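@channel sequence for tomorrow's demo:
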Amino acid sequence: MLVAPSDADQAVPFLCQRIQKLLRRTRATRPDKRVLVALAGVPGSGKTTVATAVLAALVTEYGIKQVQVVPMDGFHYSNAVLATFADPAWAVHRRGAPFTFDADAFVKLIARLQSMPVTAADEPEIIIRAPSFDHARKDPVPNDIAISSRTELVIIEGNYTLLDQPPWNKIAQLVDDKYNPLSHPATASVFSPPPPLIPPANVFRRWFVDSPAKVVRQRLIDRHLRAGIETTEEAAARRAEENDIPNGLLILSHLVEPDVRICN
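structure tokens (generated this afternoon):
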């Protein structure tokens, strides 16, 4: 496992340079293959900050234009759906826990991104739609994110993208691509040697953002106050301790081994 530099000014180039190598290799071997990266972390670890910084640097400094971040947040169940749960009050209180997301729909989207070929500029463009999350309304917005078939790299960002529990654990399998794309196992003889592993620079698709527990707790408190979810620091701390922090502990105890750990 690689560990990114703890200094953000060094961590972003570290990540971008490896993405650049991965894209070059993919373009040379399977130009129609989309690269998927799963970016996970506990609530308050700074996943969105990392994803935003990497996306901006890839576009402006590395000239990689066909790249997009797709967040998990849009797959929150709406408040209307939570109201149909056996215990609606508990579902709303625990909003953000794995069971309050439409995980099957999220995995289905990733599977489609994985299987759909990248199309060139002179080929017909296909648009896939994904939901976003409106923090003011505190509900998802259906079909708000457009993902072009010309997009070469998608960073899939969310708490549970590396959770080793079904159906979330399918995500790590969908983004993983450890075997050489030039090999053709379907036509190989039973006496053929196994396909060679791609060099480590290309096994770079599972990222985990790590932060000290005290830092995470304070970020969560500040977030709840800033969003107007709670009006006092005491209430914000209680919400973090009763919901966000237990969700984070679940992630840490059931984590698919990441390829890269990012200290934030």
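heads up for whoever presents: DSSP finds eight helices and eight strands in the chain.
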